[in-house]
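To the structural biology subgroup,

Please find below the input and predicted structure for Carbon monoxide dehydrogenase, which we are adding to the shared reference set this quarter. The sequence is reproduced verbatim from the submission form. If anyone notices a discrepancy with their own records, reply to this email rather than editing the shared folder directly, so we keep one authoritative version.
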Amino acid sequence: MSVPAPFDYHPAQTVDEAIALLQQYGDEAKVLAGGHSLIPAMKLRLSQPGHLVDIGRISGLSYIREEQGVVAIGSLTTYTQIESSDVLKRDFPIIPECASVIADQQVRNRGTIGGSIAHSDPASDMPGVVLALRGEIVAQGPNGKRTIKADDFFVGMFTTALEPDEILLEIRFTVPPARTGSAYEKLANKASHYAVAGAAAVVTLDSDGTCTSAGVAITGAAIQTTRASAVEAALVGKKLDEATVAEAASHATDGLELVADIHGSQEYRRQMTAVITRRAILRALERA
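Predicted structure (tokenized):
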């Protein structure tokens, strides 16, 4: 059984204490939330931090609340809490839908939305949903809090806009207008449940059925979670039927650097991403 490289463990009691520890240990430190992304990487020696800063005991970072048309999810909120949230089911059903297909129940009981977002695994599910919904990430560092748009947050494979001494506090979503539908679809790896190809879709229609806004993000198929701008452009301003959606979905991997591995070639992922994207958009359309 693989085991991590030696490290020192630091259980932080407050956000300020966690930030101070990150400042003290610099590049040698990693933040531990639910642990279901970082610990496996450490056991495989893909990540070898000298210091582990555990934020799981910090109170006040696990919540789902709505205020003035914005829903905020605390970074330590678990997938199980997200699955069962009436607020999210009402305003953002794509989020609990996505949470329900992440790994297995044991992982969902411990895994956190903040940990997934900060880890930025290209095959992870939740980053694509955050991107499609145009969420905002609130982080805190030694100079205070700042808000980062999702489009600016996911920088690359396992890389985000978070500074080394920042803690992710919450993810915020503006409640969408009426006639907005959303859906998440993926072709899952049967062993890990990670996305081989996944798509998050959000569409808003006006009174005559014309698409006025679209958010589409691709997971699993490329080296990072990416907004499918070409798909969005092909949807907005049109009345969406199956032919229009299929044409738009055919552009799902435009400009992406696709992954090729034992689970599928680049061409396989290209074709499957188009199929999955079409399915996600059509289901979102049904719900709009």
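Summary notes: The chain has a mean pLDDT of 96. The first helix runs from residue 15 to 25.

Regards,
Lab coordination
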